[in-house]
Write a structure and sequence with these properties.
Blueprint lengths: L5 E2 L4 E2 L4 E3 L5 E2 L4 E2 L4 E3 L3 E3 L11 E2 L4 E2 L4 E3 L3 E2 L4 E2 L4 E2 L8 E4 L2 E4 L2 H13 L13 H29 L13 H8 L1
Parallel strand pairs: 1-4, 2-5, 3-6, 4-7, 5-8, 6-9, 7-10, 8-11, 9-12, 10-13, 12-14
Antiparallel strand pairs: 14-15
Helix pairs in contact: 2-3
């Protein structure tokens, strides 16, 4: 009652599970939450039937469930997966994948995987939001940033080749800090 978090006594909760700003979190009777998972406010790990047996989801180790997400049914969310804020997930998610939307679908994009790998090196990606996501503006900005960063690399290679041929090459200014810009667009 004090925290606003409802965990059924039959649920299985792993070690080091972090429920951040937990008001409105509901974890059903047959739910299983693995070690090192992060669950944000308003998340429901719920069932979709009244039949006996497994009715609620299983979150494997290191899953992040964004604020307001609803994870409904007796399926498994693979280790290290991310469920975006306010998504409604009704089917399994493979390990390491990101699922967003209503109904949630897995995002599999090479650029997103590279960005997520970089985010993991830097630490934590709050609220299970990927840099690509479904937001068209965010997608466009990330693609523009990636394109400019690639152009910067090509220009540097051209300048180096010209310098090797004896041409005088002036500094073209400060290079684009693509990771910092991508972080701002999140």
């Amino acid at each position: 009652m004090f925290t606003g978090i409802e965990i059924h006594p039959g649920a299985t909760i792993g070690r080091r599970v972090f429920i951040d700003h937990g008001m409105g979190v509901v974890i059903g009777e047959t739910a299983e939450v693995g070690d090192d998972c992060t669950i944000y406010r308003g998340v429901t790990l719920g069932g979709v039937s009244l039949h006996e047996g497994k009715r609620h989801p299983t979150l494997e180790k290191g899953v992040v469930v964004g604020a307001g997400a609803k994870v409904l049914g007796p399926f498994t969310v693979g280790a290290g997966a991310r469920i975006g804020s306010n998504s409604v997930l009704v089917k399994a998610v493979p390990a390491g994948a990101t699922a967003v939307g209503i109904p949630a679908r897995v995002i599999v994009e090479e650029a997103d995987q590279r960005r997520e790998a970089q985010a993991q090196k830097m630490g934590f990606s709050a609220y299970a939001v990927t840099q690509g996501g479904d937001d068209p503006l965010s997608l466009a900005l990330h693609r523009l940033i990636d394109h400019v960063a690639e152009q910067d690399r090509a220009i540097e290679q051209l300048q180096a080749a010209l310098a090797r041929l004896g041409a005088e090459v002036s500094e073209s200014g400060e290079p684009l800090d693509a990771p910092a810009l991508n972080k701002m667009v999140e």
